[in-house]
Amino acid sequence: MADRLISDAIIPMRSSDSGKKALNYMDVNRVSHIPVVDESKYLGLVSDKLIYDLNLMDEPISRELDKLNTTHAHVDQHIFELAVLMYKLKISVLPVLDKDHYYMGSITLYDLARRFASLFSLQEMGGVLVLEMNVNDYSVAQITQIIESNDVKILSFFVDRKPGTNMLDVIIKLNTEELSAVVQALMRYDYNVKATYQDRSMLNDLYKDRYDQFMKFMNI
Prior knowledge:
This protein has helices at about 20-30, 50-55, 80-90, 110-120, 140-150, 180-190, 200-220; strands spanning about 35-40, 40-45, 75, 95, 105-110, 130-135, 155-160, 165-175, 190-195. It is of the alpha+beta class and about 220 residues long. It starts with 18 loop residues before the first helix and ends with a helix.
């Protein structure tokens, strides 16, 4: 839920603060948005672009309150809803409000990506398989049956569809680093095993690549 992702690093601005002060906070936290809050009342997000466009460097943000982006999340929203919201609106910080509409804190893109890494068991011990297939051949049930018939458990699935094609990369995290029996079983069913990752350094490279893809997907 949204309240579990709130960052301690994001300190909101007051409406009396200058655009320059907001930009300094954005620079320190490597974000392009910062919430504006007066006495727990959320007023909106101010962006670096807005500050430059409206020439607010030496002016209080209150001068252009009606121009602020009032996007926010509620405390009980799921991480996938948050990701979609940040992606669609191209925001680097998402304020979270309680049921009474008071400001609780903010979620950063980094917090979101880190939580996704946890959800996909990226730091758990085990190997990773990458299968390449046509979208019409994708069957979670069959892949699971083949893998688990070898006394191996699946920790997570990650599906990456290649833009403009019907091809998928299916990234599967397993609870063992011994992958040879599983690979052979999948190949008997004509699955294309595109890559395997067992070495810790190779896994770290894979995780960084997937993190970079996630950041590119969010397009911020």
